[in-house]
Amino acid sequence: MPDTLCRRCGGDLDSHLLCPQCRQPMQMICTKCAKTTEVQFHSGCLYGDVLCHTVAALA
User: Fold this and answer.
1) 3-class SS letters over 1-59
2) 3 domain-assigned
3) Would residue 1 count as lying in a domain?
């Protein structure tokens, strides 16, 4: 279940970072306190898999 409210202040969350491949939200930002959520990769998109393999190759 996606978060719809900020865990810090209870404000509404809005899209902050979109997936460059499928344009689905990957990170949200609170409209009240400007706190951002952690980046969340979503199922059904290859962008997360590609990024994970790229980071692993650099390590």
Assistant:
1) CCCCECCCCCCEEEEEEECCCCCCEEEEEECCCCCECCCCCCCCCCHHHHHHHHHHHHC
2) no
3) no
For 18, phi then psi, to 5°, come to -105, 150
The whole-model pTM stands at 0.68
CA–CA dist 50, 38 (Å, integer): 18
Centre a 10 Å sphere on the Cβ of residue 29 and count the other Cβ atoms it contains. 19
- Give domain status of residue 5, yes or no: no
Q: How many structural domains is the chain composed of?
A: 1
| Tens-place pLDDT, residues 30-48 | 999 999 999 887 766 665 5
* Structural domain span for residue 24: 13-58
